[in-house]
């Protein structure tokens, strides 16, 4: 796990290097007087608002099953080693825990947490209040459902039976699937801003 956390190194120890990882490691001398590189598990860097809030500096991307941070880095920047920029730009700590799961990995996670996929599809996570309205399109009436608000399973069970039909159950499977699918929508820094971004990263991280 710790090998995925940003590290820190005194700049004078790596003068002339352009590798951000080499510049972000810290030298530590143990009791046996042997220098070692160690991870700084306390460093945390926030992306400046001028990048996140400026739609001209990034592109939207929907992560497919075959996409990985390294492949996307190669695609956008011509260098797989910049995958950390994609992770950092999307507030992801590491690619194993935060990157969207593939369909196969998602099903394995459901099995691990709920024991059975079918069971996860009938196990309530919460309930959503639904209202309906009729919209006329091309001389045809179409019924549209609007989700108003969500309530917990415990709150739903306390409702009067006459009110329960206006609520729809969201299963554990649907909830987990929605979270994973939402995480597929990421932002990718445009290549023309890469050099500027890395310099700003070094400044903020005090590298």
SSE order, one letter for each helix or strand? EEHEHHHHEEHEHEH
Shape: elongated
Which regions are unreliable across 5 or more consecutive residues at pLDDT < 50?
Answer: 1-31
Helix run count: 8
Oligomer state equals single chain
Global Rg: 24 Å
- Secondary-structure class: alpha+beta
Overall mean pLDDT: 81
> In this structure, how is the largest beta sheet organized?
3 strands, antiparallel
User: Got a strand count?
Assistant: 7
What is the domain total for the residues? 2
| Helical content (DSSP H or I, runs of 4+) | 25-40%
Numbering strands along the chain, what is their spatial order in the largest sheet? 5-4-6
Strand content: 15-25%
Distance between the termini: 22 Å
Structural description of this entry:
This protein has 207 residues and is of the alpha+beta class. The chain folds into two domains: 2-100 and 183-205, no CATH class; 103-178, no CATH class. It is built from eight helices and seven strands; from the N terminus they run E-E-H-E-H-H-H-H-E-E-H-E-H-E-H. The strands form three sheets. The chain has a three-stranded antiparallel sheet with strand order 5-4-6. A hairpin with a 2-residue loop joins strand 4 and strand 5 (140-152). The longest helix is centred in the middle third of the chain and has 12 residues, at 103-114. The chain is elongated and about 60 Å long. The protein starts with 25 loop residues before the first strand and ends with a helix.
